[in-house]
Each structure stands twice: as structure tokens, then as C-alpha cells.
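Worked Example 4.2. Consider the chain below.
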Amino acid sequence: MVEKEAIEEAQSKLQSEFLQILRSRRPAQVTLTVQLAKPVANPLFQDSPPSIKEVSTTLIAFFFSISASIL
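Applying the procedure from the previous section yields the following C-alpha cells:
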């Protein structure tokens, strides 16, 4: 029982020291800032993304074109 209490006390001390180190490395009060930004000028998808069927059809056509050029 004494050994268990000693372990718990050591854990508590280690946790306390760790938190003190973390707190000493940053300012006490972190200020929040907001930076205004412009909207994305040229997004990749201007409509909804393609469906899985459209993507798979495109990939199949691409792989056929590659295999035809290799042969």
C-alpha cells in the first residue's frame, strides 16, 4: 500500500512539473486575432464534384488509352 501511494505521489509531482514547464513556455494570455482574407479566385471545382461513376469511367478510359499506346 505504501508503494502504491509513493507511485501516485511521484506521478502527481511529475504531472505538476510538466504543466509548469508547458505554462512557462507560452504567454499567460493568448490573444485571438481575425485576419480578413479574399475569397478563392480560381477554385478547382466550380460546380459540385464529379460522381464516382464519372470518375471511374474517366479512369477506365485513361487506362485503356495508356495500354493502347504501350502496345
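The two ends are 77 Å apart (CA to CA). Residues 13 and 19 are 10 Å apart (CA to CA). Compare this with Example 4.1 before moving on.
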